[in-house]
Structures are given as C-alpha cells and as structure tokens.
C-alpha cells in the first residue's frame, strides 16, 4: 500500500487551519500514488471530536491519541506515534505542515527514521512513481525541484499555498494508543495563546511597515488598517524596524525573518531590500506605498501608490471601512 | 560548560542569487559569503554559557569546502576555542549533513550542542532536530530565550503568536533564533588570537541521502508593476482594482 500519512496539527483541542491544507495535500498525493490517507493527531482529552471533520478533506483513517500529557506539544510521543504508524502502513510519504510545530516534529521524525525531509514545499506531485517536490531556497530567490529516492518521503508544506479540497466519503476516528512515557524533551507551557492577531505566516492579508513610518507610535494607523481589513489580516515589519526595536521580531518578513505568501500584501514605507523582497514576493497581490518612486519595492508590486504613508494609510482604512460597512 | 556549535558558510542575505548555466547550482560571481546569521546567536550563547560557568570549551564544527575555513576563523575570532572542518561538498539534502555531524560529535564530550535555527541558503530548518534524534538527545528549536540552572535547561521557543516553554536536562540540543542574544563582533585581539587556535580538517564521505536535485530555477516572475497614482487621491482607484481586477478585497 502506498499510504500517505498526514500530521493533523491541533492546538487547544481545535484543528489548526493548516491541518486541512495538510490533509488535502496528502489526499492529492495519495490519489496519484494510489493509496490511502492516514491522518494522525495528538492532543488532550476530548480532542478527537475536532479531528473528525478531516474525513471531509479526504482522510481514509483518522488516528487520534488523547491524553492529558498530549495537551501541549509532546515531541517524543509525536515522533513515536508517527514512526509506528509509518511502519504499520508502510507509508510512501508523510506530510506535515511547515508550521512551528510541524517543522520541529518533521525534522525529528526524519532523524528517527533516517529519511530525507523536504521542508516548506510549494509544489508536490509524482513523476515515474517517485514523489517530486518544489521548494524555495535562498528565501525564494531560487526554487529547487527535488526527487525522493527513498520512502517514506518526508515533506512539510508551506502554509497558505495548498488548496483545501472537500471530498465525499472518508473515514472515522480510531483511537491511537499512545502512552506518553518519560519525555526527553518536555514542553511545560505555552505563552501568548490568546493572541489578538494571526501570525504573519498564516494571515491572508499582511500589512507590513518599514522605516518610512518614522517612529513606532505611527503603528497606530497600521493597527487601524488591519482592524478594518478584518480577522484574516495581520501586521508585518521590515528588518530595519525590527532591528530598531520598534516591532517584535515575530513580525519580521524577509530572508532572516519569515517568508510569507498571503493573498494580499501591503508594503508601507518599505523600500524593498533584497532580503525583504525574498520574504514576500510569492504573495498573490502586492501593494506598495512609498514616497520614493524609485524604491525597489515598486518593482515587485502589482499596484503602487507614490505618496506619504501618513496620508495614504488613513484614507485606505476609511475606504475599506466604507466597503465593509456596505457589505462588500 | 562545554559546547559544540555547528555553523555554515552561506551567501549573505543581501546577495543577488542567480542560477548557474548548469541549472543545478548558483552562480557564485559577485556573491559575498558570510557566516549564517543565526549561527552567530548560537556561538554567542555558547560563549556566554562558558563565561557564566567560568570554565569550558567551545568547539565549532562545519561541513563545507576549503573556503569554510574563513567562517571557522570568524567563529574563533569571536572567542571559540577550536574548530573542525569536515570537508565535503554540501548538497541540498539535510540528512547526509546531519549524519556527518552526528558521527563527528558522537564521541566528543559536551553539555550543549548548538545550531542556528536555519541556514539561509537551503532554508532546510532540519539539521538540529535530526542530529538530536540521531544522538538520542533532547532538543529545542527556534529558541529565543534560555536559562540553564545546574544542568537543567528552560528554553522558550517561538511558535505562531507566542512561545512554548521547553525543558530538559543536559546534554541537549538548541537551535538559536534571532532575539536569543546580541552576538559580539570579533575584536582585533580576537582576530589575532584566532590565527593560533587549533583548526582541524578532515575529509568526510557524505552518505547518499534520499533527495536528488532535478533542477534549480529562478523565482516565478511577477506581473508587470503598475503605479496607480500619487497620494491619498489614488486610494479609491487602488481599492477598486483590488476588488474588481484581482478580487482580493
């Protein structure tokens, strides 16, 4: 059997959006390989209900482990669960989300299984029976197409890239019997769980600010714009303003920050250093606002406005509010 | 406190990357190379831990070609005590690199094994956790803060919208994220001293990994850019385009 295992990431007993993408991508791969999709989830008691809906995205089997010790990320137990599932089903591939947890876990599983891993994959398919992936390198300044010579092929998919596809049929939830023993690595808590904004990698719309905004207090108007755009929007920042201490580095977009692929990216007062462009050029639509008409950011932007951010941003917020209020 | 820090020589983040004519490598002409930025946080942490303990050895290790010597010397100039060059051609597959590092490190005594969270060339973000599994050690990746108290590590790692607190007992593996510390610049004295510090070189045979490169290509091109207008008056037209032309609002 050419089964494909999908790691279904949950947090606090709910599916993370990227879990649907992971199972959908695994389904598409399994269809090409002619195998089943086996979703694996680990979380605290009562979490199995949340993973039931993965059947709608093409999971043939849903293996859910519930245990109080699995409420937080439990790397050792997760490695063990995926290792045993992979062995039992002679998996052809294991698909993870390239989330914080997925990247940590996928590399541990790769070490345990002594198998190669392709991270942050943006294309996934089968050629001549082998799994073939495309992934950005040099923060997206180049793309590498790679072929797996060994199985299982270990893959993490970049969030916001693979479509979520609903299917008929699908499996029921089965209990995955995991007894978390003494862990080598213990996650003893999570901070900042009740966050106001999405992570910059997960948001559909990113409003990013740079040095053109002149001072940290000017992010108030950026906040207003994000609020107007709605819960799928979040803030991003250039390296310059993170290095200046104006913004937290979790918001930094670029080669030494986060690489993002939202459907809409606003670059406000960002000139467009090469390392920044590398981090956002795969956004679907890019809008640049900058005083300098020669700024390199205009070279990658679909739409540009040459002008003062302090005039353009509030006006943009106003227009978007009007649009939202009229139900548009 | 003995630490081993694994580092990598990579193109500078401001480098323009062009795919070479062979379609399998990058054109190195005009590309400036430097120590991977995240590795500097790892080295700094090892130096601070040695200083806090008042004793210990910091060893830097890399897999690379002859030119990686320069990067190792840079680490020695920052204050590392000794360096090891595992000479091999580096591929885009992280597993053979992790195996080579694990084989080198396995018999060395250490408390902390440090990495940068990611190399900014292949962006694989996998070697630290792979090595931890190969050596059977605990591991925390993307670490932004760290406390070590009598051999017990409490680290905070960055996750979406917050942090996870990770604990383990030494020896263990840490992968450093920006924010962990402020890496020092090598002093002139450090640079002079680095020339006399031991730098061991050996050829290693990388195992065959499971990934082969089919081709390397440039990024997909972006649509032709368009200036919608100037100042706030251009905003209504921008919003109209975003709604009607590309339908993202």
Which descriptors apply to this entry?
heterodimer; A: 328 residues; alpha/beta; Rossmann fold; 2 domains; 7-stranded parallel beta sheet; 5-stranded parallel beta sheet; B: 249 residues; two-stranded antiparallel sheet; 6 helices; 27% helix; 31% strand
Query: Biggest sheet of chain A: strands side by side, in what order?
Result: 7-11-6-1-4-5-12
Main beta sheet of chain A: 7 strands, parallel
- Structural class of chain A, by secondary structure, is alpha/beta
Identify low-pLDDT runs of chain A: none
**CATH level-four homologous superfamily name of chain B:** HUPs
- Which H/E pattern describes the elements of chain B? EEEHEHEHEHEEEEHEEEH
Q: Can you write the helix and strand succession of chain A as a string?
A: EEEHEHEHEHEEEEEEEEHEHEHEEH
List how many beta strands of chain A DSSP finds. Answer: 18
Structure description:
The complex is a heterodimer of chains A (328) and B (249). Chain A is built from eight helices and 18 strands. With 328 residues, chain A is α/β, with parallel strands linked by helices. Chain A folds into two domains: 4-175, Rossmann fold, CATH 3.40.50.620; 205-325, Rossmann fold (3-Layer(aba) Sandwich), CATH 3.40.50.1220. The N and C termini of chain A lie far apart (48 Å). Chain B is of the alpha/beta class and 249 residues long. In chain B, the strands form two sheets. In chain B, strands 9-8-7-10-6-1-4-5-11 form a nine-stranded mixed β-sheet, sandwiched between helices. A two-stranded antiparallel sheet of chain B has the order 2-3. Chain B is globular, with a radius of gyration of 21 Å. The termini of chain B are far apart. Classes of the chains: A alpha/beta (328), B alpha/beta (249). At the A-B interface, helix 4, strand 7, strand 9, strand 10 and strand 13 of A face helix 3, helix 4, strand 7, strand 8 and strand 9 of B.
């Amino acid at each position: 059997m050419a089964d494909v295992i999908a790691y279904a990431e949950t947090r606090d007993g709910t599916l993370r959006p990227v879990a649907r993408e992971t199972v959908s991508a695994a389904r598409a791969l399994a269809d090409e390989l002619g195998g089943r999709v086996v979703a694996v989830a680990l979380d605290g008691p009562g979490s199995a209900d949340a993973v039931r809906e993965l059947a709608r995205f093409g999971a043939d089997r849903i293996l859910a482990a519930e245990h109080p010790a699995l409420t937080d990320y439990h790397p050792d137990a997760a490695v063990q669960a995926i290792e045993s599932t992979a062995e039992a089903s002679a998996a052809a591939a294991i698909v993870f989300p390239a989330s914080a947890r997925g990247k940590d876990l996928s590399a541990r599983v790769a070490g345990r299984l002594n198998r190669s891993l392709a991270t942050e994959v943006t294309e996934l398919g089968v050629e001549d029976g082998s799994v073939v992936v495309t992934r950005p390198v040099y923060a997206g300044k180049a793309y590498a197409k790679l072929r797996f010579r060994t199985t299982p092929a270990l893959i993490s998919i970049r969030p916001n890239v693979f479509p979520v596809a609903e299917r008929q049929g699908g499996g029921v939830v089965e209990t995955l019997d995991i007894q978390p023993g003494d862990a080598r690595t213990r996650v003893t808590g999570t901070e900042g769980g009740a966050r106001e904004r999405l992570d910059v990698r997960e948001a559909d719309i990113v409003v990013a600010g740079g040095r053109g905004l002149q001072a940290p207090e000017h992010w108030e108007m950026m906040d207003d714009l994000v609020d107007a755009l709605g819960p799928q929007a979040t803030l991003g920042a250039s390296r310059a303003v993170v290095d200046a201490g104006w913004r937290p580095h979790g918001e930094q977009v670029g080669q030494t920050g986060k690489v993002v692929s939202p459907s809409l990216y606003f670059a406000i007062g960002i000139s467009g250093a090469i390392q920044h462009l590398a981090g956002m050029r795969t956004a679907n639509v890019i809008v640049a606002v900058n005083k300098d008409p020669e700024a390199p950011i205009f070279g990658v932007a679909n739409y540009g406005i040459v002008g003062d951010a302090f005039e353009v941003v509030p006006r943009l917020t106003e227009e978007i509010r009007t649009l939202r209020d009229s139900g548009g | 406190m003995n630490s081993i820090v694994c580092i990598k020589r990579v193109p500078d983040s401001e480098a323009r990357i062009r795919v070479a004519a062979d379609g399998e490598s990058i054109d190195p002409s005009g590309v400036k190379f430097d120590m991977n930025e995240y590795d500097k946080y790892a080295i700094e942490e090892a130096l601070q831990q040695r200083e806090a303990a008042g004793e210990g050895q910091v060893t830097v290790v890399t897999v690379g070609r002859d030119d990686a010597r320069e990067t190792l010397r840079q680490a020695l100039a920052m204050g590392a005590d000794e360096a090891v060059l595992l000479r091999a051609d580096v591929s885009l597959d992280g597993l053979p690199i992790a195996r080579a590092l694990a084989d080198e490190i396995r018999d060395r005594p250490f408390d902390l094994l440090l990495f940068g969270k990611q190399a900014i060339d292949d962006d694989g973000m996998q070697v630290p956790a792979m090595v931890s599994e190969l050596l059977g050690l605990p591991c925390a990746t993307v670490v932004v803060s760290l406390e070590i108290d009598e051999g017990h590590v409490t680290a905070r790692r960055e996750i979406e919208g917050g942090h996870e607190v990770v604990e383990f007992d030494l020896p263990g593996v840490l992968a450093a994220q920006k924010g962990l510390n402020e890496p020092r610049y090598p002093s002139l004295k450090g640079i002079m001293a680095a020339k006399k510090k031991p730098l061991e070189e050996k050829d290693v045979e990388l195992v065959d990994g499971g990934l082969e490169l089919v081709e390397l290509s440039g990024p997909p091109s972006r649509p032709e850019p368009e200036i919608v207008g100037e100042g706030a008056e251009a905003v209504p037209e921008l919003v109209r385009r975003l709604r009607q032309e590309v339908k993202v609002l």
